[in-house]
Amino acid sequence: MYSVLIVDDEKMIRDDVYGLLSMEESLELDLTTAASGVEAQAILEKRKIDIVIMDINMPQMSGLELYDIVRERWPFCKVIFLTGYSDFDYVYKVHKHAKYVLKAEEDEKILEALRESVEEIENSLLLERLTDLQREQQKKPLLHERSMFLRELFEGYRGLSQFTGELSVQLGIDLDPEKEVYYLLLRHEAWYCENYQEQQNATQDCYQLLERYFLDFMRGAFFEYNKNYIVLLLQPEKLLHEETIVKMLAGAGELFQKALKKNLGRTVSILVGERPVTLSQLLQEFIGICDRMIWLSGEELVQEGLQKEALAKETLPEHKKQELMQMLWRLEYYLEGMEEENSLNVLRQLQTELQSVKSMHDLFALEAYCTISSRLIGWIKRLELHEELAFRVGILNLYNVSMHANWQDAFGYLRHVAESIFSLKNQSVEKQTEDVVNQVKKYIVEHLDGDTSLYNLAEQVHFSQEYLLRIFKKKEGITILQYINDLKLAAAKQLLTDSELQVREIADRLGFASQGYFGRFFRNKTGLTPNAYREAEKRKIENG
Questions:
Q1: Under 8 Å CB-to-CB from 515, ≥6 apart: which residues?
Q2: In sequence order, what are the beta bridge partners of 82?
Q3: What's the distance, Cα to Cα, between the start and end of the chain in Å?
Q4: What PANTHER family would the database entry show (predicted)?
């Protein structure tokens, strides 16, 4: 799908070009028009445009002036000038990277320039993807090996002495083992992708954000721990007060959370270490630090010291707590991937393990329940299953653990909710897709004479243009543009057959910019002019 902006102060030319391009269904063009350079500039400030087709001589702002704005705002945007003979030589010398079509030339010249522009964009995108892929492929092995080395260090499979060895240097671990480190622990919140490749791409995007917000001003490294956790180890380049550094890290963490949510639609909770420690100290305290993450959910960011007092009141034995933490980590990973069998198995294990906890005031069990509840609530909201589950499982119990007699019943209830979510998930996704497509179809029918551009349709349903294109074609078997054109053609045939409206009136009623554009569209679809079609239909009726 390519967005095309047509700019010309002459309405007839603007409408003719719009009509010509709207019949190029194979390219899936999203067409927008502007009557001046100023109007075009306003559009370019709001949205990305792939191709601009514009006149040179326009009032207020010339095409040449607009060209400079286009190149500054969207450097990779392709420009096609509509020129007269008198302008051609001059403009060509000034802007050799643009394309030029003489206004006196046939429509095919415009289509040819458009197709060439689309091909150039596709080639650029392919080259960019190949370059990025090559770059990422070069980084991935090193990043993977570095992450594995650090994870094995923290899990006790490697000794700290190996950190200072040659292997650490080869892996590019930018940390001085003799100096203290500051640390942050990040926990994913409901990170789910439809397939493995999407998950990998999203993870790489997350890593790039981490590098941007933390490693640009500090030396350090990060690694993935137990799938749902990322550990950051940092050492400042400058000598600053500890409190200042902790505040800087908290600020960077907040910016990272916002960027992650804006760019990837994901959330993460962050625990910021309250002081620098040696690597030896950190290794000893790491399990306890992870324990404190159970108190965080959603998009929280806290400093470590704020969690210690509450955590000290837990009653479960340390060894049991560690076992349950491992279960919770696995469960969060399985829930994020919507792995039904594994998720339900872990929930059964938790139900069995916690039956020995007699007190409903045990803080660890309570937080485990709330953590799992928050994940399930997130899925209920995401899949819009609230009404379907309200009477089936009694959703209020997710918010109030006191409604359960004991922990065995509480975790048995969580398992029941999870089972219900899994059973309804596929139905819900299919229904949501169907509802969106039906909403778009209804809007098109009701606004056939108005703005039915892909940009506007996507705005109506609050989806990206690419996603809307994909689900519409999957559901209907045709593109949105084909659907619109089919509706307009059917309506035009009916009005030509059953009404006495003039061709000009029919064109206006169906949202065609001009009678000429309507005539060209109709002839392209049927092989007949509107009047010829009307006469042929009258003869059919007369002949019985």
A1: 503, 504, 507
A2: 55, 101
A3: 46
A4: ARAC-FAMILY TRANSCRIPTIONAL REGULATOR, HTH-TYPE TRANSCRIPTIONAL ACTIVATOR RHAS
Class of residue 298 by CB neighbours under 10 A (exposed 0-12, middle 13-18, buried 19+): exposed
Residue 103: CB atoms within 10 Å: 16
Structure tokens at 515: 């009678």
Backbone angle region of 384, left / alpha / beta, with phi > 0 → left and psi within -120 to 50 → alpha: left
What the chain holds in terms of domains, given with CATH numbers, is: 2-127 (3.40.50.2300), 174-312 (3.30.70.270), 313-430 (no CATH), 447-544 (1.10.10.60)
Question: Do residues 458 and 7 touch, judged by C-beta distance below 8 A?
Answer: no
In this structure, how many other beta carbons lie within 10 angstroms of the beta carbon of residue 480?
A: 25
Q: Which residues of 252-280 are buried (b: 16+ CB within 10 A; e: fewer)?
A: bbeebbeebeeebebbbbbbbbbebbebe
Let me know: does 372 contact 294? Beta carbons within 8 Å: no
Cα–Cα distance, 392 to 464 (Å, whole number): 34
- Tens digit of pLDDT for each residue in 341-362? 888 888 888 888 887 776 666 7
For the segment 79-93, the average pLDDT, to the nearest whole number, is: 68
Cα separations in angstroms, 300 against 233, 247, 308: 20, 15, 16
Q: Are strands 51-55 and 2-7 parallel, antiparallel or unpaired?
A: parallel
CB 279 within 8 A of CB 163: yes
What's the chain's length in residues? 544
Alpha helices in 265-304 (DSSP H): 279-292
Contact 192, 378 (CB under 8 A): no
pLDDT digits (tens, 9 = 90+) for 513-542: 788 888 888 988 899 999 999 998 888 888
Question: Using CA atoms, how far apart are residues 41 and 44, in angstroms rounded to an integer?
Answer: 5
Residue 52 — very low, low, confident or very high, per pLDDT cuts 50/70/90?
very high
Q: Is 397:404 a contact under the CB 8 Å cutoff?
A: yes
**Helix H or strand E encompassing 392:** helix 386-393
Give the pLDDT confidence score for residue 306 in this predicted structure: 47
pLDDT confidence of residue 246: 84
> What b/e readout covers 440-454, taking b as 16+ CB neighbours within 10 angstroms?
bbebbeeeeeeebbb
SS (H, E, C) 469-512: HHHHHHHHCCCHHHHHHHHHHHHHHHHHHHCCCCHHHHHHHCCC
For residue 211, the 8-state DSSP code is: I
Please, what is the average pLDDT of the chain? 79
For 231, the 3-state DSSP assignment is strand
Rg (alpha carbons) of the chain, rounded to whole number: 31
Res 310: pLDDT: 41
Q: Kindly state the helix (H) or strand (E) to which residue 29 belongs, with its residue range.
A: strand 29-34
Closest residue by Cα to residue 236 from 315, 189, 299, 183: 183
- The residue written with tokens 């959370």 in the block is 257
